[in-house]
Structures are given as C-alpha cells and as structure tokens.
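[step 3/7] inverse_fold.run input=structure_tokens len=265
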C-alpha cells in the first residue's frame, strides 16, 4: 500500500502519490510525475515494480529505426537516373534477380548522411561488394522473400511515376512468427530455445518459401516513390512488393533502384 503524499519513482522520475483507489483488479494510485507534475493512474503491482532500484532509469531501449523513409532524397534525381541508365548491367541468378550495374557508386558524403539519419556511425561501408549498385527488375522477375547478411540496407527508388505497390514489403513467417532472421537476438529471445530457432530456420530458409508467398503474412509495406530513400534493418524478412506493373526489361520502364548495404553498431 502507498499512502497519499508518499514519494515514489515512476518512469525514472520522482513522483508523489495523490490518492489510492480499490478496483476489481486491485489497487490503483494517482501519482503526479516528474517536473511536469502530470497525473497518471498506476496499478499497484506496476508501482511496486517501479521502486526496484535495479531498474534502468529510462523507459526506452534506445534502438535505431527499423524502417525509415526520406522523400525527395537526391537534389537532382533525374540526373542520378541518367547516370544509372548509362551503366552497363549484367545478371547473376545465383545472387539476385534482374540486372545489376557492373560497377557500383557511393556518393561522396552519403555515408555521413545515412549516419545522420540513423543517429549512429556507419561502420562497414566499402567492404560490402554490392553497396552502391544500381538494380533493374521487371515483370519477368520472381519476388524473393529473404533477409540480408549485413546489418542495414537502403534503397533509393528511381522510376518516375511508379505504380502503387512498387516499393518494398516486410513479412512475418506464418509458422513461427519470425519477422527477422531466427538467429537475431530479438527472435532468439522470442523463440526461447535453440531447438525452436533451428525449427524456425528450416521454414525460413526453405527453398520453396524463398520464392512463394504461402508462408508469409504482410507486416508492412512502403511505397517506392520516385526519389524516396528507404532504410531498413536488413535482417528483417523482406521482398520487393510487386514487379507486376513494370514492363519487360527489354521494353524499358523497369523498377530502377540504387541499393546500399552497410553495418551499424
Ligand atoms: Fe534484400
């Protein structure tokens, strides 16, 4: 029991108990919290737990965004698109769908700009071979449900007036509920055992599931608008949303993106 006038901690700030009240679920207390003195009703068991001196002082995990969109990214996207389309391209079905530029290009200061947007240092940058490639896909290409090996990925969409659904989608595996690689710490914690992680990996890396939608439910989708940068946690299971509305590669009007792969702490 907390008495009216008692000093307590809540959400890392000193608070005053104003009154208590019994409810069907147990006692609740009205407290006045922190310097702003905002009132809040708090269940007794929560208030007791909040007095544990071993708790971190803040409510937040201090994570970086798992998904971030920035519109109007390049100052002159038409120029970037012209550069992209001037490149020679090649296919390599072992590693990706569609066509990738023979050379990659990393815009000066881009690393610093990604770092500014995410609020953390970009660590590995030049070392990821495909970082900075241009990629074109068309209606002939299959979607691939996958995650990437490095920690973060980004794309700038470079097809003007894209059809709806031209962007990137993020999925959850229907069998085990994984949104990320099963070995990711968040999934390991959720799955609870090495055995469960192994079972989930069998489903997520199954060759059929790699190229078919049956095992996946959509969590969120982001539109591939012209000159939009999207940054995401590359360990999230993702795919292009759809290639259906794009032309065949030979006829032009492909889905053109510049891709970035890098590591953050
Ligand atoms: Fe990917």
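[step 3/7] decode complete -> sequence:
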């Amino acid at each position: 029991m907390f008495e009216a006038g008692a000093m307590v901690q809540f959400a890392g700030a000193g608070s005053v108990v104003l009154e208590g009240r019994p409810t069907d679920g147990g006692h609740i207390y009205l407290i006045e919290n922190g310097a702003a003195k905002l009132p809040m009703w708090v269940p007794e068991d929560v208030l007791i737990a909040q007095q544990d001196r071993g708790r971190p002082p803040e409510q937040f995990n201090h994570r970086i965004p798992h998904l971030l969109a920035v519109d109007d990214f390049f100052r002159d996207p038409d120029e970037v698109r012209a550069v992209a389309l001037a490149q020679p391209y090649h296919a390599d079905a072992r590693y990706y769908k569609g066509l990738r530029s023979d050379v990659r290009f990393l815009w000066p200061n881009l690393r610093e700009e990604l770092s500014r947007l995410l609020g953390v240092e970009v660590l590995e940058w030049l070392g990821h071979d495909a970082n900075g490639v241009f990629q074109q896909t068309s209606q002939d290409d299959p979607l691939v449900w996958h995650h990437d090996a490095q920690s973060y990925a980004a794309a700038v969409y470079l097809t003007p007036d894209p059809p709806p659904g031209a962007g990137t989608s993020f999925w959850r595996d229907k069998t085990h509920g994984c949104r990320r690689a099963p070995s990711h710490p968040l999934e390991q914690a959720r799955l609870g055992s090495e055995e469960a992680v192994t079972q989930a990996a069998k489903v997520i890396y199954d060759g059929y599931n790699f190229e078919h939608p049956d095992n996946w439910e959509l969590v969120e989708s982001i539109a591939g608008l012209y000159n939009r940068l999207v940054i995401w946690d590359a360990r999230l299971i993702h795919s292009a949303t759809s290639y259906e509305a794009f032309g065949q590669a030979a006829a032009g009007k492909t889905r053109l993106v510049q891709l970035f792969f890098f590591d953050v702490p």
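[step 4/7] annotate
Residues 146, 148, 153, 238 surround fe (ii) ion (CB under 6 Å).
The chain has a mean pLDDT of 94.
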